[in-house]
Amino acid sequence: MVELHTPLSRIDGIQTRFLPKLKKLGIETVRDLLWHFPVRYEDFSHVFTIEELNPGEEVTITATVESIKSRNTWRRSLFLVEAELSDHTGTIRATWFNQPYIKNVLQPGRMANFAGKVVASKKSGELYLSNPTYELVSAHAHHETKHTARIVPVYSETRGLTSKGIRYLIQPILKRLPHIPELFPEAVLRAQHIPEINEALANIHFPENIDDALAARRRFAFEDLFFLQLTTALQRRTLAAKTAPSIPTDIPLIKSLIEALPFALTESQKRSLWEILKDLARPHPMNRILQGDVGSGKTVIAGLAAYAAAAHGHQAAFMAPTEILARQHYLTFNKLFPNYEHGVALLTAGETRISYGNGLESIIAKPSLLKEITSGKIRIVVGTHALIQKSVAFRSLALVVVDEQHRFGVRQRAALEEAGGSTPHFLSMSATPIPRTLSLTLFGDLDLSLITELPKGRKPIKTRAVLPEERVQAYQFIRDEIVSGRQAFVICPRIEKPEEPTDRATLIAREVKSVKEEYARLSRELFPDLTVAMLHGKMSAKEKASVMHAFQKNETNILVATSVIEVGVDVPNATIMMIEGAERFGLAQLYQFKGRVGRGAHQSYCLLFAASPSAATRTRLKAIVEARNGFELAEMDLKLRGPGEFLGEAQTGMPDLAMKAIQNPDLVKHAHEAARELLNNDPTLKRNPEIRMHLEEFRKSVHWE
Ligand code: ADP
Ligand code: MG
Prior knowledge:
The protein is α/β, with parallel strands linked by helices and 705 residues long. Helix 7 packs across helix 14 and helix 9 packs parallel to helix 10 (298-311). Strands 13-12-11-14-10-15-16-9-17 form a 9-stranded mixed sheet, sandwiched between helices. Strands 18-23-22-19-21-20 form a 6-stranded parallel sheet, with helices on both faces. A 5-stranded mixed beta barrel has the order 3-4-5-7-6. Among the domains are: 46-149, CATH 2.40.50.140; 251-451, Rossmann fold, CATH 3.40.50; 462-628, Rossmann fold (3-Layer(aba) Sandwich), CATH 3.40.50.300. The protein has 26 helices and 23 strands. The protein binds adenosine-5'-diphosphate (ADP) and magnesium ion. The site of adenosine-5'-diphosphate has 19 residues, from helix 10.
């Protein structure tokens, strides 16, 4: 019997030569095959007569083969089959290239459906069908079609496996499949206006009409979103059941720390801090994201929270995505809390040091630092992912702060738990303005603190897309700024020029500016009198740190860099962000670059250069010029490119349909509510075993880490 888990190799009638091809598409079982959904449909549902045909139309006709012949064309490599077709209204020619076997199938006298494009011959104007899909039919029996005379599914294909081939495989299996039990309660189906599973499966592949196909797609999208929501909701509940160190809110301490800062906190900084401190006081782990535009001052808030944890004898780990940023957070902490004397450690692959406030700093060997962390003597550790290695054992880790990472895996969290005994509180910081719909999908009910305003006195950054002919002017502008004391970033999409061009792609790539070339050009030709430095991912951590350090101290005027500069780098004196090849970066990334300037009191500028200003590029650059804040931009980006591009597919691991469905906020919201309601009624899913089983499968399939 055919069941969902039956391997395709055990199904009669599937030729073995198809199996490796299917496997390439990730299809090994009946379920895999049936869940290989069409990417689009072609509407061949109306059957035309030959006299009704007009050039340019996609049509189906039912016709009899009058004659058929094959020949080589003048381009000898092409093998042409030509048939004369007729129905009661007239005759038409059909042509196929390089499909000699067609002659065996479409023998004269046979009747078939032909679906394809009507083309007018350039020479004679005569109409013919170009490369139509065909399907034999009988004049007598009612015949169910797969490829013609209906809405026809089109699949993503692989070499040697066409849409037609996939339709051949799917239709008989659908017929033989026993009834599949429905996961969702009747009420959910009705409320969402979605078909039950058997109907949905039939309609997503072979719909009667487009509405049925859409309803079926909606069902599967809803299903994916629902299971995403269920996953995050369950994680949240699991976490809430764990214990975490409760850190009492020490108001006098916090007040004195805030008063000692070199600036006044903004209202939303204060509100966010308060939300975080309240969470820390609870005996269950905080799970919060602190979101705010670049430069809105998230670090100081996380720093205050870390300080509060340390003041009560606990430890805090502060994790950054790069060594440069880890180092910067470490310096910031020292700057903001100069009197902190317990020692703040920096721990990256390349550097281990401790600072004791008031400029006291010691370089320490890694093993010794690890000991001090394990003994609990060092309470605040800033670092990269090196922080959550097995070798790092905290004595009492109460707070983990993660900067600029969209997700922090379940596994990493578990690693920290093992190390510390109880579960630490968790705060993630992000300047990537994640639209509400997307964050709901990715994080479910994760608590959110928002910093909505920039510190007082900041001037909005002036952003411009610069035309090629304005380049000279732009360089003069940069020179003027530098002469008046400011600094500039120049971002390039790649590190170096590719070697000899071998293909078209490399040729195009050669036009893309590289850090090394631009560095040479700017330092030798354009600004020989200024100091230019470069920064890219192939440099050692030490080199990077010293380049950054020099730039931070204004010993360098211009820094030519790759996207390593993207997140977090804080140089308030830099006022120019010049981006080469802006079309090569995502909007979120461009926005991050832009955020590297405008961090001090001076007017700042962001100059966008595009090598190939296509219409799409112009639209995107316009978005970044016009966006008033990160959230506006994020919504625009989501619309322009879809969520996969926004976050990077790999980062989300989300199913296809769910990714697309995110652009439908209502569906996300409904899935969210349905998941929550289900868990409220049945927290352990005891009464919904089907859903529980499916959840397991789902988790495996999305690599939810
Ligand atoms: P981000 O949110 O991008 O991480 P940072 O925390 O790096 O921003 O802060 C950007 C700069 O603004 C830092 O130099 C920081 O010291 C400073 N800053 C933070 N809060 C304020 C404030 N309320 N007023 C003035 N400057 C502030
Ligand atoms: Mg930051």
